[in-house]
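Contributing new records

If you add data, match the layout below exactly. Sequence lines come first and carry their own label; structure lines follow with theirs. Keep one chain per record. Anything else will be rejected by the validation script.
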Amino acid sequence: MPRDKNAFQALRIFFTGVGGQGTLLATRLVGEAALEQGLPAAISEIHGMAQRGGVVESSVVVGDVFSPTIADGEADTLIAFEPLEALRALPKCHAKSLVISTTLPIIPFTVATGRQSYPEIATINELIRANVEYLIWVDANELARKAGSEKSANVVVVGALAGTETLPIEEISWQAALKKIIPDRMLEANQLAFRLGYEMSHGKQR
């Protein structure tokens, strides 16, 4: 689903995850890569209860859009770092949206204590696919382990976003953003994580 760089106007990307997954770092990475490419970008961060393992939401709007706020039905792309959070954020999407989600459930406190149940992944898959045009599942934790750092799962997902080519951002700009945001001691593992995410989504049917 590559975009014509000359025809690109805007892309609204909504991020959701659980505290500790690096949702905000991933958000900044996408925004920084867009700026490196010379594209207008605005970031909105909603920390939620990040310090308590609660939901963290953020957004990046790239292109000719004045506000970084994404209302229901406006997200062109949904990036989710947890399957159930992908489902919960589905109202942000529209019929042509792309959803990229990790596959590893993080059991909420309410489920762990028996007050609620966690849906089957197959059910989550069916519900999302019925409402958007594209869905990519990413085994980000496994790819992060292959890259040498389990903490780089968020960067795997950013790589998967890059691989879809929905954003007209070149490799050099992604790499510049990684170097700017990731500490030197962790850069090599994160560069590999990005590459693995990119390769798993690039050119594949969605």
